[in-house]
Every structure is written in C-alpha cells, then in structure tokens.
Amino acid sequence: NFAEPREQEVSGATVIARALLAQDVKYMFGIVGIPVTEIALAAQELGIRYIGMRNEQAACYAASAIGYLTGRPGVCLVVSGPGLIHALGGMANANINCWPLIVIGGSCERNQEAMGAFQEFPQVSNSNILTKFSAIPINIPTSFFNEIEEAVRNSIYGRPGACYVDIPADFVTRQVDVSSVKFKECCLPPPISMADTSAVNMAASVIRNAKQPLLIIGKGAAYAHAEESIQKLVEQCNLPFLPTPMGKGVVPDNHPNCVGAARSRALKYADVIVLFGARLNWMLHFGLPPRYHPHVKFIQVDICAEELGNNVRPAVTLLGNINAVTEQLLEQFDKTPWQYPTETKWWKALKEKMESNEAISKELASKKSLPMNYYTVFYHIQEQLPRDCFIVSEGANTMDIGRTVLQNYFPRHRLDAGTFGIMGVGLGFAIAAALVAKDRNPKQRVICVEGDSAFGFSGMEVETICRYNLPIILLVVNNNGIYQGINTDSWKEMLKFHDATTRVPPVCLLPNAHYEQVMTAFGGKGYFVQTPEDLQKSLRQTLANTTEPSLINIMIEPQSTRKAQEFHWLTRSNM
Ligand code: ADP
Ligand code: MG
Questions:
Q1: How many CB atoms lie within 10 A of CB 355?
Q2: Ligand 1 within 6 A of 218 CB?
Q3: Which pTM value belongs to this model?
Q4: Is residue 351 helix, strand or coil?
Q5: What does the pLDDT look like over 35-81, one tens digit per residue?
Q6: In this structure, are residues 454 and 397 in contact, taking their beta carbons and an 8 Å threshold?
C-alpha cells in the first residue's frame, strides 16, 4: 500500500511526500533551495498544494494558521541553517498559541557534520525548546512514515503545538528500495476526553449559586469547535459572556449576552468566571486583583492538565475537550433546569457600561475632522464588511481598537497577534485563510487590517498574494509610525538642519508612504484614501471585485489614539 505497481526504487523526497499525504497534509508553505527543492516538487506532484513564500517566517505563520483553521497541521518546508532560523519565530508562535504545525527542515549531509558544512546548524536542538516534538529520523528514508506520523499525531493530540522533523540532505536524493520502506497509515483523530463527573456536578452547582457570573470564551473553544454547545449553554442559562480576541465569533459578537463592550467591569466584579479554553496569562491579566475580584471563583475548562491552577487557585477544574465538557455541563442543566435571571443588578450594570462605552466610540467615529481617527476608519469598515469574512489583524492601536469595532459572527474567523503579541503574521495568516476559503466557499472574503508598521514586517508577501491571485483585501491603517507618527510638514522641518538618525523619533516611519503601490507593483489594485468618502468608495469597489487582490492605504491622524481607558486592555511595558 505504499508503492506504485511495478515500482522498485523511489527518492527519499518521494517517500517524505507520500508520508505527508498519508497523514492528510493538504498545504505546504516554504522557500525552496538546497536540499529541499525535491521535496516540494514531490509533494506538489501528489496534489499537496505548495505555496512558495518570500520569507520562511511568513511561510511558518501561514502553515500554523492552517492548523488553527482546519485542525490538521500545515507544513512549513525550509532549507538548512538560515532557512530554519527564519522559521523559528513561526514555530514559537504556533507553540505558544497551541496551534498544530509541522516544520520540515533540510539539513547538511551527515558525513559532513561538525566539519563546517554548508549552512550547518544544530537544527534539532534549536527546535527542541520551541516544539512539542522534534526529531531526526534514524533509519531514513525507510522510517519516514513513522516520523511524520509521530510528528502529526503529536501536533494535534493533547494540547496542540509545533513539531519539527529534520531531513539530512543525503536522504532527500538517495534512491531507496520500496520494499524497505515501512508504511504507516493516517493517525486516528485526537481522542475526546471528558471531565470527571463529580467535578462537573460541582461546577454546575457553583454556576447556579453565582450572583455575578461570567463566561470567558477563548481560542481553545474555537479550536475545539465548541460553538454549538457553548452557545446553547449561554442561551439555556442566560449567562453573560465575553470572548478573548480570537475567541470572537464562537458565539456571535452581536449576541444579546455578549458583554465584550463592558470588558473591564465584567472582569472586575464577576464572582464566578468559567474559562473555556483561555489561559489566565497577560491577556486576561493573570486572573488577579485589581482587575478581578479578590474572591472570584474560577472554573477552568482545558485539555491541558498542567495549565489548571496557573496563577490562581481554581474553584473547580474540568480537564477535557471543551466541546465534550460543555455537553456534560448542559446535561446537568437539562436534568435540573436553571436560568440566571435577566432582571439583576449585574445585567443592569453590564448593560449600562456597554451603552456608555459604545456611545463614546460612536462619538469619536462621527468626528468629521481630517485626517481621520481610528474610530472613524473602523466604523466605515464595519459598515461594509461581509458577515462571513475572515478578519486578520495586527498592529498596536490598529488591532486593539479594530477589535472593539469589527464584529465576528463565525468561529475561527479572526486571526491576530495572539498570545505571543507577534507582529508580521498578518499576510501569512491572510494567505492561509484565503486558501481555506477557496476550498470551502470561494465567495468568502479575507480582510487583513494592518498597521503600517505591522505591514512592513512581511510586506513582500504581497507578491505571493498576487502570484497565486488570492483576492485578499489589505487595509493599511497608516499613521506614519509605530504607536504614533508625525506629519509631513513636521518631518520636513525636523530634517532641515539635522541628520535623520539623530532626530527621527524611533517610533516614526516615513510620512505619507504610498503602500498601495506595493500592490500595484505586482498587478493588484491599490487605493490611497484620505477621507471617509474615499474609504467608502474604495471598499465598495474592492468588495465588488471578488477576483483581484487589493490594498487600501488609509491615511489617519498620526497622533490618533484610543479613547481613555480605565485600564489598558493589553498592558504593554512600553506604554
Ligand atoms: P486565548 O488567547 O483565547 O485566551 P489561550 O491560547 O490562552 O486562549 O488558551 C487556549 C487554551 O485552550 C489552551 O490552554 C489550550 O490548552 C486549550 N485547548 C486547546 N484545544 C482544546 C480542546 N480541544 N479542548 C480543551 N482545551 C483546549
Ligand atoms: Mg502605525
């Protein structure tokens, strides 16, 4: 079941490609070169889609997004030494986000090891700390099937993560006798684990006795496809919920029980919080005062036992698959129905706060002054966004403010800087989302909302987008800088008498940069917009055109910021 009829010998590259196909790998991203070009060719020949990128880092981000969106790992294929080093950022990001990913790195020939071989680098040991599993096959190429199966299984079982397989150059081209290759079939889907029944009983009773309950829905719930069960729990028990950034859309943002717009208040005064696949890390302020009530009872639902009890002492821990555990909770509430009353002080306090927060944003959005501010820009974008679009976003203010205005209605439709707070992921993520959309629903759009600084990290992937003709809409929210920039006049004034390196504030980027021309350079559509009317018009045009990539460069007030906050949502050490 491995070889073709009458086949006697195949190359190591072919064995690797067949092993990947056997594990149901559908997408491979990378940059070819010695010694992996043959692997990409062999994979493509088998029908695995190969997407050549411009930097391994972006390739690795794209592959990891495939893992999150589809539940099966994408592959990132890189050359030895520097190729692998560029991919390390993507491996770290996947692992920290708990997303499945397979990185395959070519490495130097074994008989040249420790001799100063071309691009020689300790690849396995360097990948070790960024992955769940990293290995160099020993009996290659005969054992490739085993190693690839083990890597794929490790990437999706338990808490998902990144895995690395090293392939020495001499194994790629070597011809092997097909009879010596040990076939291994596709690993089974991850087993579903359920929580201990007494813990489920206890959790249900803590929820029933809550005065000010809150559900927090994280990207673990999105990954677990728990949308149906969680929405049912929200509605059956009438519980307020708030999503984390990538938990948005598990239950639609416009659901009447969503209290995202009263986030700080909900966190601070809740007396019982149920965490569905969200860690109490920096994004949730570690679960500690002053952001939370000192006596809040946490109920943690997670697939990773080691996560339970991090930073707080939970009232109840529910170890298991989020969807299965939510079904267990629903059973309890089916047996003895219970609903949190609507006429409570808690609901009233949350609703009041939501209304006042939304009013402040709307007022900022309605400001007519030019250049536009963030809120004006995002309100106009939100007005036209198709409900089922993928929203990819990164940048500091762009991402933080954009998240509060741009709505998600479907699970796994938002990709952003995530747990690692990483920048440069946007274009890779957008490419992955566009490929997934192309296969599932070609009408679905991918909107990538980038700060101008964030866009710069992987800007050359615009060529990749145009090469594969992916109808991605890139929106660059351009404030001439990181956090804040300066306008053209002050820029000219500043440089009249001084050298740029001694005067240009480190946060500044070139004012008035025409990023849309990066898109037109490769044949896509570019728009430069300065007014709300231009923005509306260019959005309408680009959304009507479903076949062409485009970039709208949106000039905003360089000093525009977010509205005053009681606490910063994402506390950065440098803000
Ligand atoms: P967020 O950034 O949305 O807060 P995190 O990445 O911090 O989310 O948390 C996601 C959590 O979900 C991780 O602790 C991970 O172990 C958990 N997780 C991932 N998949 C599953 C699953 N299928 N069932 C239960 N928990 C899961
Ligand atoms: Mg900026």
A1: 12
A2: yes
A3: 0.97
A4: helix
A5: 999 999 999 999 999 999 999 999 999 999 999 999 999 999 999 99
A6: no
